[in-house]
Amino acid sequence: MTTEPKALQKFGTFGGVFTPTLLTILGVIMYLRLGWVVGNAGLLGAWLIIIMSFLITLCTALSMSAITTNIRIGAGGAYAIVSQALGLEVGGSLGIPRYVSQGLAVTMYIFGFREGWLGIFPDHNAFLVDIIVFSVLFVIAYISANLAIKTQFIIMGIIILSLISIVIAAYEGSMALPISESLSWGSFKGSIENGFSGSSFWIVFAVFFPAATGIMAGANMSGELKDPKSSIPKGTLWAIAVSFFIYMALAFWISRSATEQELISDYYIMVEKAYFGSLIIAGILGATFSSALASIVGSSRILFAMGEHNVLPYSKLLAGQSKNGQPRNAMIVTGILIFLTLLMRNLNAVAPLVTLFFLITYAMINIVVIIEQNLGLISYRPIFKVRRWVPWLGLISSIFAMFIINPTVSLISIMIVLTVYWYLSRQNLETPFEDVRSGLFVSFAEWAAKHTWGMKKMQQRAWKANLMVPVRDVNGLKGTFEFLRNIAKPKGSIKLLGIEPFTEHSTLAEKLDDISASFRQKGVFSSSTVIHTNEFANGINYGSQALQGAFFRPNIIFLNLQDHDDYENELRPVMHESIRLEIGILLFSLHKTALLGQRNIINVWVSDRRGNWELGWDIGNLDLSILIAYKLKMNWNAKIRLITVLEKEEDVTDAVEFLNKLVNLARLPQTLTEIFVGNFNEIVEKAPSADLNIFGMEPNLRFQFIQEMTNKTNSSCLFVKDSGHESILA
Fold first, then answer.
1. Which three-class secondary structure state does DSSP give residue 439?
2. H-type alpha helices, 383-466
3. How far apart are CA 657 and CA 147, in angstroms?
4. Which of 649, 644, 641 is nearest to 606 (CA)?
5. CA atoms of 535 and 574, how far apart (whole Å)
6. In what order do the strands lie in the sheet with 672-677?
7. Where is the Prokaryotic cation-chloride cotransporter second C-terminal subdomain domain (predicted)?
8. Cβ(298)–Cβ(67) under 8 Å?
9. Each residue of 276-305: pLDDT tens digit?
10. pTM of the entire structure?
């Protein structure tokens, strides 16, 4: 185990996500290749290439936003996202190649910086320039991510000045060519390297596309953000929007500022056409330096995260931190890797791997969202929602881009990922968190139960409302039909358990079959059976005990309290046995006149925690109450209101913080909260009205209390007891 750092600098949206993402996208390709792209493809072709490139990254950014608002993302960016969804084996198979490619990217950015530097000072020693730049980068990143962020602010200022230089040039008349001449499709004449022997749209696309692959720079800092759930979507999407506008505008400017021949033959055309060419050179140096800095900081965080999860050998060493929370050991290892790649002097052979590992990462993030969306588990309720076609478009376009850029290296990249996965799958990694694979298994088990027979306990992320409803009065069941359907819909189930003395001409089984068929027609799986017994409570308990041996056993028993029920002798024994068997309990008391009202508001009563306001994974007898409220909210299009009544005034601040944190971590948008101080029985009568009030159930729930709550709230009430296998925070 690693020791908790004494102080960890946390970053906001602008510094932690927007700045590194924007600076990585606005890289050397913008300065040295955008003109060539426009010269070959024409302005219309260049615009199409920019739109296509950013569309691919936008889809992935949207998918990433959905995932990051649905989980408590740890350190490691994309590695953390994939690991928490598909397990450490899949996350590591992506994280290890991604980490190595990030190191290679740092080296390539250093080489790009060196080329720009030698353009100014041709007499300087190339290797010495590389070593000095690497040393400066390493020192900045090693000291702290805070210094790296501050350095990037300076670089952003330089890039802004370079763009201002272009704006001034445009204002001073650099855009001399007519719009009709620039607004055309290109002739794709090629480049100096191939003697202008011709090119194609897809070759030009492959040259430009790496410019749009910097969207993970901010996500890599996930472990050091104040609020990654908010910062990653906002910062990444804003960076994409701003950089897209800049690229589109620059393409228009350069198309009217230089001829086709100038554009395809001179990579430094922007330097010559800008008002202050030296600022463009500074921008090139700044862009390569900032990209290298973001990559070295981000890659060390990926390595640190894998060390925390024991994915790699010597993981405890890699997970070591300094007193201010910096992953110094991971940084040293990363520095050694980069230094060794610097000695290679020529990375042309492996350079495509960098872009292709980015695209594999994008594809995996989209796959995660596709799986989560199609499983339909209640644990997937992101604050940032995306349409179903978005991850599909992101996945298909990412794979398409891979094979357009380099089919051979794409296959090699995929083989590397599969090889690493094969290796990690044999290491028996111990996942410290639950991932969505449990949901996959449970879904598969619906048609192939033999594959998941070993999963005796339903896992929290795969939780569904599987109700067992005892019935002896069919009319009472009909009265709660829609209520039951709204609790179970869409992925839950309802098991109707008829209880009656044996008679030869009973019609109960037939009636229950008809009602089960109605549930199925309305989108909820249902089945029914009848137990013949004179003892109502024993019949239910025998049914509960028998179903413990079934794989798809009910996890909630629904008791509809009616006038003919003997609470003490019939319902209380059922509740006691359900608690023993770890089955959740819903005891429903329908108000005679109010019924379920307008189905607009659901009150969930949170008990006074009396000094224990820490929010951990165990939140007491509250998980099932909120899960049921959330199901009803979605199916009723209603609002949830959390209410707590305190005995002491001094607990108000803690209670407010607890409820707000609960709403945030449980992903309960538009949830109201109310806190009262005083006597519970008095406040219940004064509390805001609702169509349904949900109360936690004490082990010895009194019948008098049920009646009082139903009368005082003037509404139907639901009394809930957790089974211990639910979690609203999952």
1. helix
2. 389-405, 407-425, 437-445
3. 32
4. 644
5. 11
6. 525-532, 493-500, 466-471, 556-561, 584-589, 716-721, 692-696, 601-606, 639-646, 672-677
7. 597-729
8. no
9. 888 988 888 888 888 888 888 878 888 887
10. 0.70
Tokens of 488: 């179970």
Per-residue tokens: 659: 């409820």
What are the tokens at 101? 């490619």
Three-state secondary structure readout of 486-546 = HHHCCCCEEEEEEEECCCCCCCHHHHHHHHHHHHHHCCCEEEEEEEECCCHHHHHHHHHHH
Q: What is the mean pLDDT of each run of 10 residues along the chain (730 residues)?
A: 50 82 84 89 93 91 84 67 70 76 82 83 88 90 77 88 91 76 80 80 86 75 74 89 94 90 87 88 87 82 77 68 70 86 68 76 83 74 85 90 84 83 70 54 50 52 86 89 92 90 85 93 90 88 79 84 87 90 91 92 89 74 90 93 90 88 87 91 90 90 92 94 84
Sequence-distant (6+) residues with CB within 8 A of 83 are 76, 90, 91, 92, 95, 309, 431, 435
Q: How many helices (H) does the chain have, and how many strands (E)? A: 29, 10
pLDDT of the residue at 636: 93
CA distance 130 to 342: 8
Owner of token pair 């478009």:
393
What is the predicted pLDDT for the residue at 599?
93
> How far is 685 from 694, CA to CA, in rounded Å?
15
Contact (Cβ atoms closer than 8 angstroms) between residue 603 and residue 696: no
Contacts 24+ apart (CB under 8 A), 649-655: 649/677, 651/608, 651/610, 651/611, 651/613, 652/677, 654/613, 655/609, 655/613
Answer yes or no: are the C-beta atoms of 695 and 717 closer than 8 Å.
Answer: yes
The pLDDT tens digits of the residues spanning 474-485 come to 988 999 999 999
Distance from the Cα of residue 675 to its chain's centroid:
31
Q: How far is CA 17 from CA 120, 231, 294, 382, 383, in A?
A: 32, 7, 10, 20, 19
* Residue type at 404 in one-letter notation: I
Closest CA to 1 of 350, 309, 286, 380: 309
Are 713 and 446 in contact by the 8 Å Cβ rule? The answer is no
